[in-house]
Amino acid sequence: MIVDSFELAITTYALHVVNSPEKDKAFNMLINQQRTSSSGVYWSNIELPSNRAVFMSLNERLAPKYESELEAHAIASTSFALLTYIKRAKTSLGKPIVHWLQTRRNFIAGWCSSYDSFFALKSLVNYAIRYGDTIQQYNLRVNLSWSDDAY
């Protein structure tokens, strides 16, 4: 039995990529290891604190995130879990995972390292491509005015 969250997430994803008969068993193990916080769903060997909300005016914002030594590990694990959910076409279950990943960004819009940032972006882009907003009709009104005297 795999106990490390990253090892389980990457193994489960690999089993789904090759369409292994063991993929469902691995997916059930992955579900059993998920953690839930106010920020969403994630996979980590330890519990990570959620970002606290602060209010500026009437708008809620997230305060700077708490640092954790295993945060990059959790981001990579959660990214592979999201890729697995995408493979399984679990749209509604992917939203809390996406939300958690988005709340873990640093102040320059990346994550902890290049490694976990790569997998986080890969999973989020794949999610957006597969399940992005399907609004195809927009109402747009543009008023233009100009004067020949300006030139």
UniProtKB/TrEMBL annotation:
GO cellular component terms given for this protein: extracellular space
Domain Alpha-macroglobulin-like TED: 4-127
SUPFAM superfamilies registered for this protein in UniProt: Terpenoid cyclases/Protein prenyltransferases
One Pfam family it belongs to: TED_complement
Record protein name field: Alpha-macroglobulin-like TED domain-containing protein
